[in-house]
Structures are given as C-alpha cells and as structure tokens.
Amino acid sequence: MNDMDDVDGMDDALALLLDEGHLVAESVTSPVLPPVGGDSVDGVEDALALLKPERAGAAGGVGVEGVADAAVLVSAGATGAGAPSAGGRGQDSDAAEGVEDALALLAPEQGAETPRTEGGGDGGGPVGPVDWAGAREIAAAAGQDARPRTERVPLAAALGRVLAEPLVALCDLPSFDTSAMDGWAVAGPGPWTVRDGSVLAGRGAVAPLEDGTAVRIATGARIPPEATAVLRSEHARTGERPGLLAADRGLPHGQDVRPRGQECRTGDRLLPAARVVNPAVLGLAAAAGYDELGVVPRPGVEVLVLGDELLATGLPYDGLIRDALGPMLVPWLEALGAEVAAVRWIGDDAGALRRAVAASTADLLVTTGGTASGPVDHVHPVLRAEGAEPLVDSVGVRPGHPMLLARLGAPLGSPAGTGTPVRHLVGLPGNPLAAVAGLLTLAEPLLRGLLGLAPPVPHRAPVDEEVPGHPRDTRLVPCVHREGRLLPLRYHGPAMLRGIAAAEGLAVVPPGGARPGDEVEVLRFPWTTPG
Length: 531
Ligand SMILES: Nc1nc2c(c(=O)[nH]1)N[C@H]1C(S)=C(S)[C@@H](COP(=O)(O)OP(=O)(O)OC[C@H]3O[C@@H](n4cnc5c(N)ncnc54)[C@H](O)[C@@H]3O)O[C@H]1N2
Ligand code: MOO
Prior knowledge:
Helix content is 26%, strand content 23%. The chain has 531 residues and is of the alpha/beta class.
C-alpha cells in the first residue's frame, strides 16, 4: 500500500509530488512503490544525466544522488530476472542495453546537441531525429500547408469551432437610437409637457417629440425622433404642476441615449478569423445578425490502435493488457478540435494496417504502437510501402522519441488529379505517456495548423525543485501548479498513466535539466484552466 493513501484529504495530485527531487530513485527503490522493470533504460539515461554535472566538477548533492541512482538502477535491472514483479523475462537484456546506452551517453561526441533537421530531408529520406521544438514547428507548418476550408454551421453548433473568416457586423449596433434607462424621452430644455402614452422596447416607429415635450420611455425602446435626452425616473420631478415634468439636475444633450452604431457600423470587423467561438462570441454574432457562422471544418481523424496484446474490457490476463490509448486519445483529440470518425483495433497485422492507411479518407491518421523496430512494429514498413513522405521520424524527446509524422498520398479510390486532400499520419509510441508526448508534440500543432490556429503563446512557470534532464533530449514531465510554481509528479515513467492523470500539464525540461526557480514551458492540457 502506498503510504500516501494514509494522508486523509490529501489532494490526489499533491500525493504524487516527488520527494526531494528523487525522480529516478523513487520510482525504482521506494518500498511504497512497485518496482518499475521496463523503465530501466530510461532510468539509466536519466540517472546518468545526473552524473554529468559531477563529472564536470559541479558542486552540490545532485551528482552524488545521481551516482546512487545510477547504481540502484543498474543493479535493479541486472537482478530483475529473479523478481517477478520487476517484469520477469527480458530484464537481463534490458539492463545490458541500459548500461550500453548509458555508457554511450557519456562519450563526449554523444553529448553533442541532437542535430536539428529541417523538414523535407534529402529526397524524402527519414527526417530525424529532430529536436523537440523543431518537430513541433514542422508539425505546425504541415497543418498550415493544408488547404483552408470553410463550412457554415448554425450558431448553436458553432461553440468551440474556429472562425474561418472575420466576424463582420451585418448591422449597426445598436441598430437604432436606444434608451439606456427607464424614464422620459425629452426634447429640448425642461420643464417639459408630458405627452400621453409610453414608448416601449420592441415597438415600431414612434411619432417625433416636439420641443418642450416628454414621453415615458422604457430601457431598450427606440428614441423618438427629435428627442434630445432621456431623463431617468429617479432624477425626475413630477406633480409640482399637473402634466409638467422637471429634472432635479442638469440634463446634457444625449444623456442616456445609446446612439445607433455606437458599438459598430455595418461592415465593421468585430473579430478576426481564427478565433475560437466561445459563448461571448456567440452572443456578439447573434447581436450582429448572424444565424450561422463560417467555421473551419473539424479535421477528421481516425485512430488505429495496434497491438495483439490489447483488451477492450475487463482485467489484464495471460500477458494481455487493457487498451489505455483508445479511451484516452478519442476525447483528447476532440478537445484539440478534431472529429474522431473511427477507432480501429488493427492488432499486429501489417496487411490490415496497410489497408486501413490506404483506404482512410481522414485528414489525420493517428496510430498507436508499432513505431519501434521490433518484429511486429509495422508502422515504418507500411509507410514506406505506401510511399508516404516522412516529415519527422523520431524526436529528441523523452519519453516518446520514436514518434513520427508523415504526409500520405491520396486515399485509395479517390479520383486522380485536383482536389485531393492532404492527409497526414502521426505515429504515437505504444507506451502511454510516450503516446501523450507524441500527441502534444506532433498531433496538437498539426491540428492547430489544420484549424488555422496560430501556435499558442507558450505558458512558462518556474520549477519548484531540481528536475533532472536528459543529456541531449528534452524531457516532458507531468506536473501541477502550486502557488505559481511547477511541481513535477512521480509516476512519470513512459508506460505510466498515474502521473499524467493527476497532472495539469507537461513541464518541458530542457536537456541538462532545470534548477529550482528556472522557468520552463508547460504544455497545458485542454481541460486545465490557466493558472
Ligand atoms: N530496440 C529498441 N526497442 C525499443 C526502443 C528503442 O529505441 N530500441 N524504444 C522503446 C521506446 S522508448 C518505446 S516508447 C517503445 C515504442 O514502441 P512501439 O511504438 O513500437 O510500441 P509497442 O512496442 O507496440 O508498445 C510499447 C509498449 O506500450 C504498450 N502499449 C501499446 N499499445 C498500448 C495501448 N493501446 N494501451 C496500453 N499500452 C499499450 C505495449 O504493450 C508495450 O508495453 O519501444 C521501446 N522499444
Ligand atoms: O520512452 Mo519511449 O520514448 O517510452 O517513448
């Protein structure tokens, strides 16, 4: 049992906070956490990242902790074969690879910056590894390159959509001179002779008001022609002389009259294109005469979930596990503005994957799993067979580095020639946190581009504590905000979901890590409010 569970009323997210920055050691050695066998490769890399300052002679305890962490990780991996809860088979080889990877990272030439490759590559060859920021730029540009389209939807269906064209006033606002208050419309200086009747909101034309006269008027009613001001009821004196109205203060010309066109004139641009329609925009559009709005069509997305090991329901058994990505990605993609047309469970069948890719008419295909080079990792071979153009093929980011982006040809059976829509495929790694990293690194900028949205203004915040980095790659770490500072969460291993489920976003930790107080970018989740 996790001792955190004992703390009554503790916020779920806070319960996941890292203690004293022991990101790596916590996930491997803590007696209250299950051992994490499969993460030993990443773990060793992370741990060795901690060694670097020590080797470079940096002062402080980080390097010392790093040494301990690295030793713990290597021994955990090496002895893991005998510990069923640590993953059982495969531990020895994981550990060996881990050590090799780790040693490779220590070599000076390996410590060099990941080369940043520009989009296009040399004659369509693999484009990668690309650094994290570069990958996002390529994805955004790929989306922006797609042909802009517009569809008209009724106002009630436009919430959350993106304006495809500027919102232009279809009428003056207000569309007639309007009384801003309940009281009397008056003509000229007082006192005024009161005319019979009342002018109410929503009524048709009213007779002109003669100089020296007044008529009762309601807020929102049309100002009678020739009226010069509105006298509020509470400022009026009546009864001093029958039928005569006076003001208890000066009444400037135009007082409490909203003149026609005060807010806008017909044809004025009220909002630029590419604004997300929120409830206030709907109100403005309605006031300005709109019954429907021209919005950018939601990019159509198909999700192809790969892997023979996946179950749709029930408890894991016999090496089978629950599909965590189908249930997570559909609403997440929709929150990013996509319309998910289908989720298909393809298994590890290369032929089925190729047929699904070839036939799909979606703007974006998102695959999960199968991005690496294992015996049943079919994404790369299928893309090659389909003649797809790789735009990004692996990214300098942890987790998620095998993620990829490719431009696809026309769907099967589509007429040759003009009008062929551009289709893209984002390949997400199978490990769930790695898949989220791919979603936010490649799919989100691509979708924003397809929607005509500019890249978001980066949100930055200082980290509350030391966050270890990878020596060459960016790290994406689940985090929460507390009092303006970012706290990284534990359970951040590539195969884990606990951290991300409690998180408000992913902290973008630069190569080498972040020191307490360093500002880092945060990729906020669509459902978290700015803070
Ligand atoms: N020789 C190497 N092997 C691996 C490398 C590498 O660099 N060299 N990278 C590792 C990393 S990092 C990742 S991430 C994975 C990426 O692998 P794939 O994209 O091919 O994913 P799979 O092998 O299909 O699955 C990985 C892992 O995730 C689980 N998974 C897959 N789909 C789901 C799902 N829908 N819901 C829940 N879990 C899922 C799957 O069972 C595996 O455990 O490759 C490493 N290997
Ligand atoms: O760490 Mo992998 O990069 O789990 O995606």
